[in-house]
Amino acid sequence: MCLGVPGQIVSISDHKSHLAVVDISGVKREVNVSCVIGEREPIMELIGVWVLVHVGFAMSRLDENEARRTLALLSDLGEFQESLS
Amino acid sequence: MCLGVPGQIVSISDHKSHLAVVDISGVKREVNVSCVIGEREPIMELIGVWVLVHVGFAMSRLDENEARRTLALLSDLGEFQESLS
Amino acid sequence: MKEIITLAHGAGGKAMESLIQQVFVPAFHGVEHAVLEDQARIPMRLLAEHGDRLAFTTDSYVVDPIFFPGGDIGMLAVNGTINDLAVGGAMPLYMSCAMVLEEGLPIEILQRVVNSMVEAANAAQVSIVTGDTKVVPRGQCDKLYINTTGIGVINSGVQISSQRACKGDVIIVNGSVGDHGAAIVSARTDLKLEASIQSDTQSLSELVQIMLRVCPDIHCMRDATRGGVAAVLNELADASRCTMYVDEKSIPVSPDVRGVCEILGFDPLYLANEGKLIAIVPESAAELVLCAMRQHPSGAGSVVIGQVVDQQGSAVVMETQFGAKRVINRLVGEQLPRIC
Amino acid sequence: MKEIITLAHGAGGKAMESLIQQVFVPAFHGVEHAVLEDQARIPMRLLAEHGDRLAFTTDSYVVDPIFFPGGDIGMLAVNGTINDLAVGGAMPLYMSCAMVLEEGLPIEILQRVVNSMVEAANAAQVSIVTGDTKVVPRGQCDKLYINTTGIGVINSGVQISSQRACKGDVIIVNGSVGDHGAAIVSARTDLKLEASIQSDTQSLSELVQIMLRVCPDIHCMRDATRGGVAAVLNELADASRCTMYVDEKSIPVSPDVRGVCEILGFDPLYLANEGKLIAIVPESAAELVLCAMRQHPSGAGSVVIGQVVDQQGSAVVMETQFGAKRVINRLVGEQLPRIC
Amino acid sequence: MKYIDEFRDPDQARILLQRITKLADQVASLRSTPLQIMEFCGGHTHTVFRYGIEQVIPKSIELVHGPGCPVCVLPREAVDHCVAIAERPDVIMTTFGDAMRVPGSRKNLLQAKAEGADVRMVYSPLDALSIARNSPDKEVVFFALGFETTMPSTALTLQQAYGERLQNFSVLCHHVTTPPVLTEILQDNQLQLDGFIAPGHVAMIIGEQPFQFVACDYGKPLVISGFEPVDVLQAMLMLLTQIHQGRSQVENQYLRVVRQSGNASAQLALCEVFEIGEKVTIRDRYAPFDAMVRFAGHCQSDALPESISEPSYCAEVLKGRIRPLQCPLFGKHCSPSDPQGALMVSSEGACAAYYQYGKAEAMAEI
Amino acid sequence: MKYIDEFRDPDQARILLQRITKLADQVASLRSTPLQIMEFCGGHTHTVFRYGIEQVIPKSIELVHGPGCPVCVLPREAVDHCVAIAERPDVIMTTFGDAMRVPGSRKNLLQAKAEGADVRMVYSPLDALSIARNSPDKEVVFFALGFETTMPSTALTLQQAYGERLQNFSVLCHHVTTPPVLTEILQDNQLQLDGFIAPGHVAMIIGEQPFQFVACDYGKPLVISGFEPVDVLQAMLMLLTQIHQGRSQVENQYLRVVRQSGNASAQLALCEVFEIGEKVTIRDRYAPFDAMVRFAGHCQSDALPESISEPSYCAEVLKGRIRPLQCPLFGKHCSPSDPQGALMVSSEGACAAYYQYGKAEAMAEI
Ligand code: SF4
Ligand code: SF4
Ligand SMILES: [Mg+2]
Ligand SMILES: [Mg+2]
Ligand SMILES: [Mg+2]
Ligand SMILES: [Mg+2]
Ligand SMILES: [Mg+2]
Ligand SMILES: [Mg+2]
Ligand SMILES: [Mg+2]
Ligand SMILES: [Mg+2]
Ligand SMILES: [Mg+2]
Ligand SMILES: [Mg+2]
After folding, report:
1. Which one GO biological process term can you cite for this protein (chains A, B) (predicted)?
2. CATH superfamily of D4-154
3. Regarding beta strands C277-281 and F118-121, do their DSSP bridges make them parallel or antiparallel, or are they unpaired?
4. ipTM value
């Protein structure tokens, strides 16, 4: 449930209304970023940030380190597997 | 100016609003007959009457005698003409 | 639930397939094949039997209302295209049918239209061999539009052309004019006219075949659809660069069509027909052609309405009932009801 | 004053004539003739030079918006019908063009559409020889609809059919899938997507001719328009009563088309294409056909995507990236954007 | 068709023509210039052209085509008003078919419609009323034009709307009355008219009396006439007879339709609703139904496009001073498909009639 | 595509599958019945079918498809409400594409649209707001559905509408929350589930805590998972590991997206706008934007068609008690082109997924 797609914020289109443009594999769409702005963080800081988009709202920031860690875990598994075989 | 067509009233469609159906060479249309109802004349009396229709209103009754007289005058002229030639 | 057309019926998936299977396949001969392929395929030898030139014509039908006294959009779509082939001297053989449907159209309405296409096509021995269906969102088309494109073959002896009207040629019409236009105007609800006028929608194919049998050398022939008889006469006078004389008295107009014209200030010469043709034939053959035409139901009311009087200019001149002349021009815009 | 289409342009009178003279006659070869007559006439010997069967196909085009990245409705209308002829193995030769115009349409828009039809027809050496124009009241159609009906001729050696897929046959597509559908979705204003996706609208006629040169015995061929590759594969599997295996990994999808699909929850296999074909060829000829295809710009991205594995059943089975299988059905309704 | 076919009978016409020719010869022999008779009304002009009457009457009678066409006398500003109101998204503008082609300064109603305005053609003002009843969320405006013939229908429609207390119906009134237009012609020194064929359908409403001044004050014979060709020829004969006998009277050829005192019910309605001064306006009582009041902002001239006036030739033709063929624009820059003046629009307009039915040059060629 | 392609990598999947197989064999050897793991969420079900995961995992693991599809849990009455409101001529109904096919008692929104209702698909509730701004003369209603993932978007949209004092915008709220649905499953005696794959996008909003009761109160292991196939396989491996080790904890596989405490801003918006009880309702402060209030007449059950309930099988499938193929209607009387239940509609629905991607019989044949 709840289709969510990762995309990268490429510009801020409306400071006041918290609207930014997200790029998803070359496709752009304006989304609301209210839920991913940090307190006292200038909205411009969001440019470059990866977010998870659901129904026109950015709902979470993607954590690159965690993603890398998850994948590293898998390749560790893989090496472990290989060492077994 | 002011296209007017002779037609015959064939039925009364709305007593209160003075609407009647006129037949014009087989084509029927509802028209307002307010201007051709005589004082104290029951509207039903209009059935069979020929009227001149303009933009959906019956604007005058056709006078058969006068029509006949006009044409008679012409044929008199014709006979007169013939008698000359 | 009443079955209606939805956008899914145009989306290329199961809904579309089942619409085609339910409505079109049982109706159209040959479409079964076309459903399987992207194109109908016709052996060329079947065509060659009929002559040496392919005739090819297209028309879209957008009539409102889609059902009217004397016909409907389906019958019109088949007969109209048949007629555009026939008046070129072609034997109409194959036809395509492409429909644009409005979301929300009851399938029962579509079925009625298709049935009447089938009936018209069968009557004229024309096969509908390929088709297409598109669905547009509600409000983006008015109920349904039909395009039919026809293929026929012209016999080698026949040379009908709009450019061949010659001095002395006789101008024939196959019956009363303006019936279709007047029927549509009366069927429209906004003018609130009530009339028993029937559209003259009919196939002219048989009639034309009969005419060609007695006179293969018909010079010009055209069905008098949009723009009416006035448009056709002008087109032919232009193309042949000739002057035509038409006798007002001789042009048949039925009483109720006249009634509509008197009420609205229309001229029946400019009203559309859907089963009337103008033929221009050599004077020597005129009597023969006329006789032959009158033998056929579609030509029972055939009359001579005029003659080509000059090989110069490009004018249609009408002799009025009073012996005066007036030029019959083409229509400029639409005919609009007049108050004055 | 900006010139716009009015109802008078469809009324069969002077306005219509001048529209035809202004817009259509300068654009379409051969229409000059058709303006004079009710039907185009094509000497049968010109057809016989190309083969023994006439191919005949029709499509209406109702795309919204009418201009989109990579094309417009005019180009689509010409290429779409050319492709329906080409995938039957026919050389596309003649075409009709019937337009339904909305009152109020700027004539400049019509002119742009016509220009692009001309360009597409010239590029494919197809002549538009007959036409029709109807005008409907504002709001009764969406800007303009086009019907094109095409005539081509199939060479006697060619026997392409949806029923000929055989065990072992190889399934080829000529490039990335879903481009047209994704371009249209992105060009629609309501979803507010911005993408640089170009429609793949193109004529496949040359490509098919090249393919037939190296392999006259292509078994099946179809352009993957509405319903996408999934629809075509299912249609061919049904008609040939066979089972096909398709390898998910091998199906080319461009990154931004994937982007659109991820955002909306679409499957690119069901998105429309307007310049992609599926060819099913004997295994022995597959390499040769593929090589030939890749020489042509329209086939540069050609790849094998699967194989016919069984002469029974009627199923399209996809091997997923994980080595699992899933059945590829036809679409049921339209693809609608999903939230879940 | 009863009351029509008899009056289109070529035999009847032939008899009349013989008498006309004879009488015209007699009258002409006594004068150096041709007789000039004005058919005031566009309906008569239409008949004249439709049946080619000019070609069959003697050369000594010259028909001068008058300004009696409601569409032709409509000022461009009226159309501009109408377009400005029609272009409001909340408005449905309704009017007669032939009003839709009359040029405004920048566009006509057909063009406004094609550009998106909701403009609907009606056969009767009552149909406009039905539209208003069925579209409670829209402002329905009826663009009313025409001479006295048409005014009662507008008046009765307004009375009906008033009675129903319809909130969303109004009338944009551009009616005109006949006598002032006639007076203007009579006061024109350049015109030397010998008599008038007067509009039978106007007289059907207002009766004979309002035409008396033509005979009494200006000494011109006038015959009220029907619209069939036999009517027109008979009226012509009656005029010739008056001229021959040196009389100047108001006579009525159209006895089958026109009563001496017109139609009292119609006059009453007309009087109740309209204030007839230099212009015809809607009385205060009906102000809520007056589009001029309701859309006052749209009818002020500064709210409108700068008005581009008609070619000056039009007024000349309208008054009968020049004939359409004498207008340098005729057939070249001005034709029904690109009309410069209203006279080229309505099939009642003299210019359009010449163009549509006349093309005198073409005739000459044949 | 970054953050997507890596998690669809077949090589990664292969590694995981080998580990899963190994571990499953160990676990299975200790028990007589297969392991039953429920992927609660339709998004996961979609992934399972799209990539054919059931075919590649060991037979000893049985996936039970849960009810976590907002479209599948929508009661028919909700659609009936929505249709009744949409059919008002002054209303523009807006909603997500997949909501349009959900069956009501008599019709779905697509059918209402085809019959003339103005129903528009939007990608975002913000797009519905734009429509409201651009159509001031229409009532624009947004049919809001979905679990916690979608609720903040509705909440923020309502806050925006409130701020703008929009007069013509309202929300028909049919949101649902996850924990009660999970509880119902856990309380079902017929189900003997061994663990849960939990919806990552719900957790992204509400965090891990609301899932703790599954582990604490019911002793079932639960792993919050992403939606790519590698995510799902890893979550499965994490579940197996817990089971193998005899643990029952809430774990988070989807660390790149889900923070332990969820998204505070989103929770705040959600809290401000919605009252979360047995049902999710709009707070009084926002009552003017509540379509239930605004169109109260249309939402009373007597104003609606008598509701026809779903086949009873649907509830069974929804709870994971029976599999779609065990429903006697499946594929015969119930198919995506003629669905009897919502489960056959959404591509998240287990029945539709089986039909669309599965067709196990067909598979068996090959
Ligand atoms: S021809 Fe045109 S410009 Fe000249 S008077 Fe007539 S309407 Fe006016
Ligand atoms: S197959 Fe249809 S009826 Fe059976 S459970 Fe699934 S949705 Fe319900
Ligand atoms: Mg044609
Ligand atoms: Mg209609
Ligand atoms: Mg035609
Ligand atoms: Mg024709
Ligand atoms: Mg097609
Ligand atoms: Mg086709
Ligand atoms: Mg559109
Ligand atoms: Mg095709
Ligand atoms: Mg096609
Ligand atoms: Mg045509």
Report:
1. protein maturation
2. PurM-like, N-terminal domain (3.30.1330.10)
3. unpaired
4. 0.92
